[in-house]
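Archive entry. Fields below.
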Amino acid sequence: MVKSVLCEMLGIRYPVLQGGMAWIADGKLAAAVSNGGGLGIIAAGNASADYVREQIRIAKSLTDKPFGVNVMLLSPFADAVAQLIADEQVSAVTTGAGNPTKYMELWKNAGVKVIPVVASTAMAKLMTRLGASAVIAEGGESGGHVGELTTMVLVPLVCDATPLPVIAAGGIADGRGFAAAMMLGACGVQMGTRFLSAEECTIHPVYREKILKADDLCTMVTGKRLGHPVRSLRTSFARSYARREFGGASDEELDAMATGSLRLAVQEGDAERGCFLSGQIAAMVNRTQPAAEIIRDVVEGAEPILRRATACLE
Ligand code: TUI
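PREDICTED_STRUCTURE:
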């Protein structure tokens, strides 16, 4: 059986975290992942603390296993959500899209394990100094907000930069990806896109179909000009945004186009105005399964690969 230091640290069976996908990763999905032996994560995204409190309540009603909350640091409600996480003494907090320094003491004093997403070695070193429990090295293959480096480059560099357990993310959706992450020095993985096909993931059927049908060249990155590059499915919305981004549209026009676009994709399946965030690995996501089965597939798929890994030695 695949195990790592993360299992003991987080009280989980398999070293698999579910990504904090805004509007998608709710209490129901998080509980399903935690019941399946991974660490489910509720995404705060741009939502209010009241929404997050309700999702924590739902998750607690569906599982007695540990779960976490993801704070999207650009959210206008980040301060209130950070306080809620401390008050609720959630098992773990993951952060994304920024630097969580100002919340670290609050969370550590509340006994919450802090696991920031880092997109550089400098950030990994800073988080180590400030007392993070682990870090997530998320490469640009991932969906949503992306950094510069790929998973293949970022994970070993971050492993060299910190003694903390490193969780690999970005472009991982099966046993091969899991095994490769371990080979790069990671202690576990975080997956987002693969969980979009989980039975317990309540996205609009249009979104699900787009993921299930996606091919290898199905995603693109937009938003670089405004400093927030985001990977999403190559829909007419994404193409149109990219054309305007490099065709002289004002910052305000681009902001107006992006505002509400994640919710429109997730809840309305709006193919014209919705932004369908997805990692490059969507091409590998071909069927709907319970979250627990997804986790088993990934870790059981990795086992024979890791056992065979020594076969290339003489
Ligand atoms: O955060 C994500 N993925 C996301 S966030 C999101 S919502 C959004 N809304 C508006 C603009 C942009 C995004 C959709 N998907 N993944 C984790 C992640 N964090 N990827 C990259 C980073 C990151 C980037 C810079 C983490 C730290 C960082 O540090 C910069 C600094 O301040 O030093």
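CURATOR_NOTE: Residues 5 and 102 are 27 Å apart (CA to CA).
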